[in-house]
Amino acid sequence: MISVLEAQEFVLRNAEKLPVISLKLEDSLGYYLAENCLAPLSLPSFRQSAMDGYAFIHTNETRLKVTGQIQAGDLFTPQLKPGEAVRIFTGAPVPDTADTVVIQEHTTREGDTLIIEKLPLPKANVRPIGEQLTAGALVLKKGHQINEASIGFMAGLGFTEIKVYAKPNVCILTTGNELQERGTPLKPNHIYESNGIMLQNALKRLGISNIQLIKVEDTLEQTSKAVKQALEAADVLLVSGGISVGDFDFVQEAFQNNGINEHFYKVNQKPGKPLWFGTKSDKSVFGLPGNPASSLTCFYAYVLPHLRSRMGSLNPFLNERSAVLTETIKNIHSKTLFLKAGVTGNKITPFTGQASSMLNTYALSNALLLIPEDTEQLNEGDAVTYLDLNF
Amino acid sequence: MISVLEAQEFVLRNAEKLPVISLKLEDSLGYYLAENCLAPLSLPSFRQSAMDGYAFIHTNETRLKVTGQIQAGDLFTPQLKPGEAVRIFTGAPVPDTADTVVIQEHTTREGDTLIIEKLPLPKANVRPIGEQLTAGALVLKKGHQINEASIGFMAGLGFTEIKVYAKPNVCILTTGNELQERGTPLKPNHIYESNGIMLQNALKRLGISNIQLIKVEDTLEQTSKAVKQALEAADVLLVSGGISVGDFDFVQEAFQNNGINEHFYKVNQKPGKPLWFGTKSDKSVFGLPGNPASSLTCFYAYVLPHLRSRMGSLNPFLNERSAVLTETIKNIHSKTLFLKAGVTGNKITPFTGQASSMLNTYALSNALLLIPEDTEQLNEGDAVTYLDLNF
Known about the structure:
The structure is a homodimer. Chain A is α/β, with parallel strands linked by helices. Chain A has four domains: 4-19 and 167-310, MoaB/Mog-like domain (Molybdenum Cofactor Biosythetic Enzyme, Chain A, 3-Layer(aba) Sandwich), CATH 3.40.980.10; 20-43 and 131-165, Molybdopterin biosynthesis moea protein, domain 2 (Alpha-Beta Complex); 48-127, Molybdopterin biosynthesis moea protein, domain 3 (Molybdopterin biosynthesis moeA protein, domain 3); 320-388, Beta Barrel (Beta-clip), CATH 2.40.340. Chain A is built from seven helices and 28 strands. The first copy, chain A, has helices spanning 4-13, 148-156, 195-205, 220-233, 251-257, 292-310, 360-364, and strands at 20-24, 37-38, 48-49, 53-56, 63-70, 84-88, 100-103, 107-110, 113-116, 126-127, 138-140, 161-165, 170-175, 179-180, 191-192, 211-216, 236-240, 261-265, 269-270, 276-280, 283-288, 320-325, 329-330, 336-344, 347-350, 367-371, 377-378, 383-388. In chain A, the strands form eight sheets. In chain A, strands 7-4-6-5-9-8 form a six-stranded mixed β-sheet, with no helix packed on it. Chain A has a six-stranded mixed β-sheet with strand order 16-13-17-21-20-18, with helices on both faces. In chain A, strands 22-25-24-26-28 form a five-stranded mixed β-barrel. The longest helix of chain A is centred in the C-terminal third of the chain and has 19 residues, at 292-310. Chains A and B meet through helix 2, strand 15, helix 3 and helix 7 of A and helix 2, strand 15, helix 3 and helix 7 of B.
């Protein structure tokens, strides 16, 4: 049995990058840049007024003659002589000969005469070419995750398409004869299937939408066949349940039958001990525990960073943060514990109901409290580390 | 001019809830519950084995006769007598007469004879009915934001449809004659339009997809007409630019012409002073500054909490967190400052390049450092508050 850190190393070391694709800028939110992004032009690309006011050649003269006006977007600007001023608006081009803009609140007008009441410093309120950045500068690095600000920024530079890493096609196989589809009354001794839809939505939060969800009958033949078909269609395969050593758990054998290379089975953690991870060329395969909460914990700790890494992320793990523990916790298992918890301000409180079958507390959790395998006890008031479930 | 706190109060106080709609559970990620969710059944709903092993009636006898097996999903279970055991698997129903499951690792088999090597306590490894929750219990409250765990949890309870608050239709109007569409070489004195696509993607991150993006010509007539049409189609109107008092800024007049009730104009903050907010019956209208970074800051501080509140959120603001400042900052303006910043571990560093036209640092920011209007200086090493841009 390997440690959590070893297992996390395995899932990152075996995270082959997905293909590089060209995307329209407007569709790129959440993707990771596959190449450095260089500025194709300077910003601003012309001398721009930063305010509404008057452009002029700096002088101590307080009365100037207004000879015209320039609006943002005007293609041509008047030539300006000493003693003259032009009305100008924010974002408008400053005439070549002018060097300063006085804001309108510091002026009065008498017909065509401008009276400057508070003289600005030379060059005030004029944004020089390249003030924000110069053409050719490295602006966003490979691996950057595209957010709304990057999209606005790249739009301002005129980008229409950008190169990013693709998102994976994922297939989710759910196993277990006790599982029943929703929509009909529950049969005796059955439970409603929940892992598939849960994992599907966890993937959606990562911006992954190409997801196939398949229920597999609990026989070796059917399981092997489903794994084979999934490997043909998907980049990543998540199998929920059937990974233990019970007589009806065929998943491991199905993985072997399909020539999937096992990297590890079982991690020294609670919940989620019977986690399986393997690859076959550029396909990755996770065997997740059937218990819903175990499954979701394994998703956050291993599947999510693996997928993010394949999508090009340089910081694929959930954010680790620190908070103050509100109660004492013993770790009698010498395992790494992931405890569903609520963080308010700088306090963290683990929920009661940590059993691996229990999803109700997970729905309310915004944090996974992390207790390392070699920590036997954490005390009330200790600063502890948690994984932030806002992502 | 009002303070940031007053302005935030205004945008929440005037956040009419959107209509309640019925959604398929699988499509509900990110929505907010519009009613309390009660458990329609107990979990588990039958006595379940928690492990692979053998069910039996607790006894000190160490040799039992194996009379059958029960798989997860079996509709019927055998009756069990003292001295007998049945092979049982995780999730399978425990026979009515049995009270305990011994895990397989603590047993050996000699043909039909089971030898218990380590006797568990009575009732061990049997999940009683309702262990997780009992039918009728309140499981998720109105206002809860649905995540993948809530979806899994509600799926396990058999929910197919749930009641949530709708997401808004949003219209974004961009103003400014200097703005040019991407795709053609930049004309002199023009800039590529970036605010529209930026705001559109910020909305997408909130799960809002019904967005209309319209470029308006800078005349009062066209602006008034566009505002009128947007009010007919959208729940929320975002107007980018044209909100200042320059001769070509027609947005405020267009708002008046359309009978929109002004709640405030101008907030004592930097960037984003010329922010306008109003409503007309259940429609909300924001006049956002044209500078991209100002616009985005106003989005995070006002538009986002307003929208979340309309969508049913009880905690609509971005998370406020604390970190240690790595440098000294003066606030000479007596305004609330929002500074683009990077947080690493528990340290926060504001970026250089805070000018309101600059989006490049915003793309790299994961935090907005908040400096209250009455704070004149923050020192290196101070614990400071920031808004977390992970949302």
